[in-house]
Write a structure and sequence with these properties.
Blueprint: H1 7-10, H2 16-29, E1 36-40, H3 46-51, E2 57-61, H4 64-73, E3 78-80, E4 92-96, H5 105-114, E5 119-128, E6 133-137, E7 140-144, H6 147-152, E8 157-166, H7 169-176, E9 184-193
Parallel strand pairs: 1-2, 1-4, 2-3, 4-5
Antiparallel strand pairs: 5-9, 6-7, 8-9
The structure holds S-adenosylmethionine.
S-adenosylmethionine binds at residues 40-44, 46, 61-63, 66, 96-98, 101-102.
Length: 196
Amino acid sequence: MSILRRGSIKNVVNDRIKLGWYDHLLECTKDLDNIKILALGGEIPLVTEALKHINITLHIMDLPGVCKAGRSMYPEVEYFEDLKLVDDKYDIITSYLSLMYVDSLEETLEIYRSRNPQYLVFGHVIATEEKTYIAKQGKVSYRIYNMKDIIELLPNFELVKQDEYPLDYKKLRGKLNLKEDTPIKSLNFYFRNKEL
Ligand SMILES: C[S@@+](CC[C@H](N)C(=O)[O-])C[C@H]1O[C@@H](n2cnc3c(N)ncnc32)[C@H](O)[C@@H]1O
């Protein structure tokens, strides 16, 4: 039985995309013991809040300012400012609305693969049916992904589940500086390691 509890997150979040992502995490923890999770992007302490009452090892990789704040708020969590410096092995690697900010999808997923996790759980990935492209929100650049690019970079993982959430493309187009006429959606999905 999973050691995660849906009830533990209900006070923290009422957003259906976040709950969908959390449900995927719950599924992945069902058969695992002594779970060690790496989360990319931890500014909103959703994972931390949901998991702090249970026995789990949580590592978070984020920008230096977020790590500094996190270390004082959550001393039980280990923070990393560089993805290359995270531990050698995790059971689950996850991210929620954070993969879009990485400089290189290729390098990021290569590091994920090298840590040989049982599951990779992706939450709120902004996706397009067109080619992956980079957009800008003020000074911040971020990527709108084509799902095929993610799948191609994870040959030793099988896609287990994928949920789609429509986004109000017209409303977001100006704000997020999206490409003209390329509708976007949000995806929650997870992979299982074929070799474990
Ligand atoms: C929109 S927030 C999502 C935070 C969190 N996952 C949540 O929703 O509960 C994006 C997060 O990605 C982090 N971030 C931005 N650039 C990053 C990078 N290059 N590598 C890792 N994290 C990054 C931000 O600091 C922030 O914590």
